[in-house]
Amino acid sequence: MAKVVFATGNDVSTDVIYPGRYMATVLPSETPQYAFADNKQFNAKLNDGLIPSGSIILGGKNFGCGSSREQAVSALKGHGLVIVAKDFARIFLQNGINLGLQTIVCPDIVASEGDELEITSSEVFDKTSGRKFSILPLPSARQEIINAGGLIAYTRKRLREGSAAS
Amino acid sequence: MGMTIVEKILARASGKASLKAGDVVEPRVDLAMSHENAALVINQFMEIYEGISRVPKIWDPSKVAIIFDHRVPAESPKTASNQKKIREFVAAHGIAKFHDIRGDVGGICHQILPENGYVRPGFVVVGTDSHTTSHGALGALSFGIGATEMASVWALGAALNVEVPGTIKVNVRGKFRKFVGPKDLILFLIGKISAEGANFKVLEFHGPVIQKMSTSGRLVICNMSVEAGATAGIVPADEETRRFLHDEAGVKGRINVVESDKDAVYEKTIDLDVSDLESQVACPHTVDNVKTVRQVKGTKVHQVVIGSCTNGRLEDLEVAARILKGKRVAQNTRMLVFPASARIYTQALEKGIIGEFMKAGAVIMNPGCGPCLGVHEGALGDGEIALSTTNRNFKGRMGNPNSEVFLCSPAVAAASAITGVITDPAKGAN
Ligand code: SF4
Fold first, then answer.
1. DSSP characters for B51-75?
2. Residue-level pLDDT at A163
3. Which residue, among B63, B81, B130, B285, would best test binding to A if mutated, counting the most A CBs under 10 Å from its CB?
4. Could you report the per-residue pLDDT of A25-48, keeping only the tens digit for each?
5. How far B317 CA sits from the closest chain A CA (Å)?
6. CATH topology assigned to domain A2-138
């Protein structure tokens, strides 16, 4: 069970999650300090360790739209955040899967900041409101990457198997 | 059952006889593009090879393109060091399609690829940049991916687990009014279907307006398809594509094109008539917050920006220069022009366009992304408003979350630079 620490609106862009001016910072070990950098309050809480790992960001529709910058994913992952949203922008979702950020697609979710959510493989249960919302399963092809432990491990596996394109 | 262009391209690239939307494939990649974020790609690429006993090797260096554009010349030691690291990697791996910071062959990736003939109809193009959708203008399937996915492409030569996207057909007919063009069309469409109206889909553009449109204009509509959430935008390649590739990109030999089958299956069809379309403006802070220029006219602008991978091409500069000719940029408004590539800069110089801009009081910047993503020049002050021909107006996009960005065509930008307030070019700036 974990708490919704930040409920965003729709169309949260990667410019908001990870502002462009920090894009020269690329290493997953260094990006987390700039997560939501323009939201001074939330960013300070993250960096001061006041947000426990496993906490939930509740997104609206089209979470992670805009730039393909992968820092937006590695920054959130670095803080151990879980993203529950009505839906995600394509590249963000894919980057999330590739890097192992937990991205939960929950089309009908209605919840508020502070709510305690319990996430199973098929649904999100809001303990605070007592409501349940079903989760949209990921396409099976994507599941393979997750099962391998992310795209780097999956690509390694493919290289070992010698199944590269010719 | 017939196939759409994208289904055909993916079928060919993944060795299948036929495909339909929703199938999952591993297409071979014809061109893999990165910019300065190649620094992260290199990092992930090296990590793939850690722990397996192989030497890191790019599957086919001739299919990799790296272009420096986001922060040129470097604004910080960190960026300069990233660029240095990339240069060393490029040399070590024999990547020939490398465009460094140069006044002859440099520029923004989404202009460098088309103008050098790197993209051909029917190609599968991936790029670590969301506006990689631009190259659909040449009849290719071109989409953005993340850096780790690119590292995987460098290793394997294929994109893994690509779901064949469904296609929305957009038919455009009518005739543009004066000062109205491709940018207004795509802003209007995004406003109509919303920032996620084409999520996970391809926008395939058809109709007489598209057929008559230059490749430069087609690049605008495909570039911004991603702002409606589209995986890709695509214009079927035709005679104009051949003309562009032969005459402007110096491509020799036959150019084959891919077309949709007559009985291809589309998710839906959107019909648009542009005859009554007015100039459009996307208002802060989302690209789909689109209004007509009349609805926002009179809004004070502190900075006008003309350029980017959307509207930094010769055609765009020409339109703006024609409006600015003999006029001056308003007091308390600054105007920044950044051509999309060194080649365009030179052409604009030769045509006298750069001189017109300078006489009007505009500042000409070196080709590159410039202020578009708010990292190293042209930042806005608190409470300031920019009017820009770029493609994104998200909060903080131009480097300051306490500023606002409006998006428009080059004609609206130029007319507004003269008055200092948002102005309809059709009504004229006096
Ligand atoms: S000009 Fe702007 S949108 Fe285009 S590639 Fe550069 S930063 Fe991205």
1. TSSS----S-GGGEEEE--TTSS-S
2. 53
3. B130
4. 988 999 999 999 999 999 999 999
5. 25
6. Aconitase; domain 4 (3.20.19)
Q: Residue whose CA is closest, atom 6 of ligand 1?
A: B369
Contacts of A65 in chain B (CB under 8 A): 195-196, 229
Pocket test for ligand 1, best of B67, B338, B390 (most atoms within 8 A of CB): B390
Burial class (CB in 10 A: 0-12, 13-18, 19+), B139: buried
pLDDT at B161: 83
Residue A48 CB neighbour total at 10 angstroms: 8
Widest CA span of chain A, in angstroms? 54
Chain A partners within 8 Å of B231 (Cβ): 90
d(Cα A147, Cα B200) in Å, to the nearest integer?
Answer: 23
Listing DSSP states for A121-140 in one string gives SSEEEETTTTEEEEPPPPPH
**How do the domains of chain A map onto residue ranges?**
2-138
β-pair partners for B66: B34, B98
ipTM of the complex: 0.91
Q: Report which secondary-structure segment, H or E, holds A27.
A: none
CA B307–ligand 1 middle distance (angstroms): 10
Domain ranges across chain B:
5-272, 280-419
Q: How far apart are the first and last CA of chain B?
A: 57
CA separation for the pair B232, A139 (Å, rounded): 20
**Cβ–Cβ of A24/B24 closer than 8 Å?**
no
Report pLDDT for B430: 41
CATH T-level fold of B280-419:
Aconitase; domain 3 (3.30.499)
Q: b or e along B298-316 (b: 16 or more beta carbons within 10 Å of the residue's beta carbon)?
A: ebebbbbbbbbbbbbbbbb
End-to-end Cα distance, chain A? 46
The answer for residues whose C-beta is within 8 angstroms of residue B254's C-beta and 6 or more apart is none
Asked if A25 and B78 come within 8 Å (Cβ–Cβ), the reply is yes
> What kind of fold does domain B5-272 have according to CATH?
Aconitase; domain 3 (3.30.499)
- The vertex-B399 CA angle with B394 and B403, nearest 5°, equals 65
Instruction: Please identify every stretch of chain A with a pLDDT value under 50, giving residue numbers as ranges.
Output: 164-166
List the beta bridge partners of residue A63: A88
Residues in chain B: 430
Q: Are B416 and B422 in contact (CB under 8 A)?
A: yes
Going from the Cα of B113 to the center of ligand 1, the distance in angstroms, rounded, reads 14
d(CA A6, CA A2): 12
Supply the pTM of this predicted model.
0.95
